[in-house]
């Protein structure tokens, strides 16, 4: 079933990209829109897709996939963007895109299994140490609402939110240690990070909804301005829903996750926490996906990313398949209403980008710390030295490797170097 799911996801995602229906890379959607309007050739579109997505596949998607032994969805969907947009949109190009996309998905899954098995034959098996990369992410994730509030509203409000969230976390710890919370004689254990995250998100939504549009401003009715583009998305909603169903099922089968945070939690066996993390991320993506979809007529193959939430919380694959299909249908049907809501509350619309920025900043710090800890566990002393040097040289070179990937990539590199040194007798 795992192989069937991943092959179908790769094939269908490549077809959707090939037909200009949906692309995963947020930055590509406006460019695909330019191609649809006839202002960009197919060749230039394909080259642009390769330039924008290939580095993210190699430097972001693959490292996280390898460190957790679970496919980060970026690994497959950024690749299918490239495959779909670099093949011609004609009667033979679309089937080729489907075939190559399916093979690409299968290759990811087979390669992942082979990578995990390979560790057993290494002089230094560093697979267990690699799990340390995600450890800081789980704890620090609760801080992202406070950071988003600081970006959008004020540092003061961000600090207040952070302190209250930290206090709520410690109260949850105290309740767990004392065992005061019981239901029917059964002790209830609170997730301390989850409680802090909920408090932070409540503060963020309150601040955002209080930032209403200026009554003197005419505003922009996105739904009316781009009604034809919304109609184009609705024409393809069933094929979009089919892919959403497959991704929800793949998440439920624990073969993929939609972001590094939920992927890390899933690898630790914290499935409910992974679901809450995915839900928090989806809140930040609704304004971005909705506005770019309405403006360009190009959707995201994962929609508002709610299909991942479905995958984490439903009890079995078949229910995930059905609910994933329904969720994408509802998203597409509600696009116009969502656009009007975002026009009414510009604070919520603007919060999407701030949430994404806050998550990125948090991941940069947490994964650098986690990568350094993992590297030092693999090769004491040398690990810290290599990670620090890698980070500083990457900054000096203009960041050819995105910051968020420096920790995982560096830890993998240290593991490889340690094995080479062991083979020649220097470790």
TrEMBL record:
Pfam families: YhfT. It comes from Salipaludibacillus aurantiacus. The chain crosses the membrane at residues 49-80, 92-112, 132-151, 158-176, 188-208, 237-258, 297-314, 320-342, 362-393, 405-426. InterPro entries: Uncharacterised_YhfT. It comes from the Bacteria. This is Transport system permease protein. Keywords: Membrane, Transmembrane, Transmembrane helix.
């Amino acid at each position: 079933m795992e192989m069937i799911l991943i092959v179908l996801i790769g094939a269908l995602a490549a077809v959707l990209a090939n037909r200009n229906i949906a692309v995963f890379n947020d930055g590509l959607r406006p460019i695909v829109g330019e191609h649809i309007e006839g202002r960009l050739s197919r060749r230039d579109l394909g080259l642009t897709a390769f330039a924008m997505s290939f580095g993210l596949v190699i430097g972001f998607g693959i490292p996280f996939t390898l460190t957790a032994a679970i496919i980060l969805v970026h690994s497959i969907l950024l690749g299918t963007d490239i495959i779909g947009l670099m093949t011609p949109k004609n009667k033979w190009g679309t089937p080729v895109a489907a075939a190559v996309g399916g093979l690409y998905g299968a290759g990811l899954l087979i390669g992942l299994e082979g990578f995990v098995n390979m560790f057993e034959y290494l002089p230094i098996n560093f697979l267990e140490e690699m799990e340390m990369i995600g450890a800081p992410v789980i704890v620090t994730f609760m801080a992202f609402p406070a950071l988003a509030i600081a970006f959008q509203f004020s540092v003061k409000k961000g600090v207040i939110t952070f302190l209250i969230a930290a206090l709520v976390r410690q109260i949850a710890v105290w309740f767990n240690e004392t065992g005061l919370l019981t239901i029917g004689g059964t002790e209830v254990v609170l997730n301390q990070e989850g409680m802090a995250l909920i408090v932070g998100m409540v503060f963020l939504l309150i601040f955002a909804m209080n930032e209403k549009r200026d009554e003197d401003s005419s505003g922009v009715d996105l739904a009316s301005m781009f009604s034809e583009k919304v109609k184009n998305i609705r024409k393809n909603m069933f094929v979009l829903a089919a892919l959403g169903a497959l991704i929800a099922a793949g998440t439920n089968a624990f073969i993929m996750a939609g972001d590094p945070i939920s992927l890390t939690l899933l690898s630790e066996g914290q499935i409910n926490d992974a679901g809450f993390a995915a839900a928090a991320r989806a809140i930040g993506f609704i304004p971005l996906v909705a506005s770019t979809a309405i403006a360009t007529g190009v959707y995201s193959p994962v929609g508002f990313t709610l299909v991942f939430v479905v995958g984490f919380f439903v009890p079995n694959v078949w229910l995930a398949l059905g609910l994933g299909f329904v969720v994408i249908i509802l998203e597409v049907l509600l696009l116009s209403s969502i656009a009007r809501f975002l026009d009414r509350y510009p604070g919520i619309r603007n919060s999407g980008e701030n949430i994404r920025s806050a998550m990125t900043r948090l991941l940069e710090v947490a994964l650098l710390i986690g990568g350094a800890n993992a590297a030092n566990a693999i090769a004491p002393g040398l690990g810290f030295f290599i990670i620090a040097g890698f980070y500083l040289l990457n900054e000096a070179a203009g960041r050819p490797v995105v910051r968020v990937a420096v920790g995982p990539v560096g830890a993998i590199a240290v593991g490889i170097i340690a094995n080479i040194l062991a083979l020649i007798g220097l470790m």
